[in-house]
Fold this protein.
Amino acid sequence: MKRTWRLILTGIWNHLINLNANELKKAPVALFLWKRPDIAREILSKIIDYGPPEIYLVIDGPRNPDDAEAINAVKKVINELLGDSGITFLVNASDVHLGLFKRFTSGFDWIFSFANEIIILEDDTVPGHEFFNFCNVYLERFRGDKRIVAINGSMVLSDKEKKRLNIDGPFLKKQFGPWGWATWRDKFVDTYRPHTSDISFIKKIQILFWVRNLDHFFSRYKVFKSVVDGTLNVWSVQFRWNIMEQKKFVLCSHMNLISNVGLDEHAATQFKDWNGILNIPISERAVDWEKFTEFNCIHDYENVIFKRKTNKQFVISTLRKALRPIFRV
């Protein structure tokens, strides 16, 4: 009888050990905040439900007294929700307003001084539960694949558009989307190298052939040039451009796991939903992400989105404006 109980207990113990060994490692989460206390509460609640080992909070500073009041409200939300949560959290708050480029760039340096892998959200990107599962599965699977530098949980195509592109599972794309994503320290550091000057004619041609769409290339180049010239203060354009320049990929979900709700007076750059990509409902359907084994590159993914906001006249106008300066070496 004692032997029987010993065998039963041993079997239960071994089963628990195997469960623990096979349990997917949870990546920490970084959240970039500014002055949206209500949305910060919603996003932090989702993160707490996920239960990461650490949370890294990056906060930009105020431009004026109204900003300062809103930022203080955000900090109160942080202390209220995380103070007794049992989750380790670190805060990097700037006393002065840095703007998108400097705050994100310095924030990444700080985050990657602690973390090797990270899930990244902003104060206008609300995640669903499956977003974290999606990120964790593929952070582990593609850790050693140098071609894939980021994982993106935002899907903005309609069912009709996905059917036309034969998207029925996670896929690769050639451009980066900053709305709910994950990455690895070594890959991000190798890829995110902000340009301080224009690129060569040869590089432009190489990227054009990589993108495989003339009007889309010109549109992206125009934004990139504005960032290099200092007239547009954003960080993600540099990362997106370098991914194209280095011919790398982003893994994207076939379901929308993130909703961008940032169309308000606090938006730093997005004031109009010009191509129907904001406030898309989140899919909460449970998915066995492990079952997917093939990941095709959908070359026309970005082009479909781009065509929503454009027409023939716009393309012609853009080409006329862009052709003259773009090929000047």
